[in-house]
Amino acid sequence: DQQVKQNSPSLSVQEGRISILNCDYTNSMFDYFLWYKKYPAEGPTFLISISSIKDKNEDGRFTVFLNKSAKHLSLHIVPSQPGDSAVYFCAASVIQGAQKLVFGQGTRLTINP
Amino acid sequence: DAGITQSPRHKVTETGTPVTLRCHQTENHRYMYWYRQDPGHGLRLIHYSYGVKDTDKGEVSDGYSVSRSKTEDFLLTLESATSSQTSVYFCAISQTVITPNTGELFFGEGSRLTVL
């Protein structure tokens, strides 16, 4: 049972436009959500996170939105740059006693010049 | 970059042979994890450790065992490798549990294992 789902395996966006990556979760106990970015032949690296007490968190060009009622979060990248081309993983955890993250399947983002 | 070294980085083996992957960290972080990455599944937790000799199962632990005899080393063993264990394996570390105010998961560069 996939508790965290990224239903779009890939996304192609023009440079300078907005990239929107989506993630859905089923476990209502999740209260902390993270996005990781992965380049080929490298390990994932942390990008941005949000706790369930917020509905938005912004860091430079990256913004994460959380809709708890819909159990949905999204990552917005504005403006998109060629260096943003990577695989993006959504992850979730339960803060209390949390020792592990549950990851989604990943979305491959390609930014076209 | 977090000091995480995985070895070997690439390995090809045959079905039924034992395989051990090593993760070595120089950060003195308490928590260590083994994930596998497969197309369509993303990253799935195999086992994790919350201290020396303290380990627990993740969501895909069948066919795998782990050991942590020192803070810096976390070993993942496939007792008898199968083709379904062909994957890219990532070690990760964190200083504390992952919360909004503390902790972050740092990943190694991965070990690609092919079981023929």
Task: List descriptors.
heterodimer, A: 113 residues, mainly beta, six-stranded mixed β-sheet, five-stranded antiparallel β-sheet, B: mainly beta, seven-stranded mixed β-sheet, four-stranded antiparallel β-sheet
Task: Explain this structure.
The complex is a heterodimer of chains A (113) and B (116). Chain A is mainly beta and 113 residues long. Chain A contains no helices and eleven strands. Helices cover 0% and strands 53% of the residues of chain A. In chain A, the strands form two sheets. In chain A, strands 2, 4, 5, 9, 10 and 11 form a six-stranded mixed β-sheet that branches. A five-stranded antiparallel β-sheet of chain A has the order 1-3-8-7-6, with no helix packed on it. In chain A, strand 4 and strand 5 (45-51) form a beta hairpin. The model of chain A has no long low-confidence stretch (mean pLDDT 94). Chain B has 116 residues and is an all-beta fold. Chain B has no helices and eleven strands. The mean pLDDT of chain B is 93. At the A-B interface, strand 4, strand 5, strand 9 and strand 10 of A face strand 4, strand 5 and strand 10 of B.
TL;DR of this structure?
Chain A is mainly β. Chain A has no helices and eleven strands.
SSE order and pairing:
The complex is a heterodimer of chains A (113) and B (116).
Chain A: E1 4-5, E2 10-14, E3 19-25, E4 32-38, E5 45-51, E6 56-59, E7 62-67, E8 72-77, E9 86-93, E10 102-103, E11 107-112
Parallel strand pairs in A: 2-11
Antiparallel strand pairs in A: 1-3, 3-8, 4-5, 4-9, 6-7, 7-8, 9-10, 9-11
Chain B: E1 4-7, E2 10-13, E3 19-25, E4 31-38, E5 42-51, E6 54-57, E7 65-70, E8 73-78, E9 87-94, E10 106-107, E11 111-115
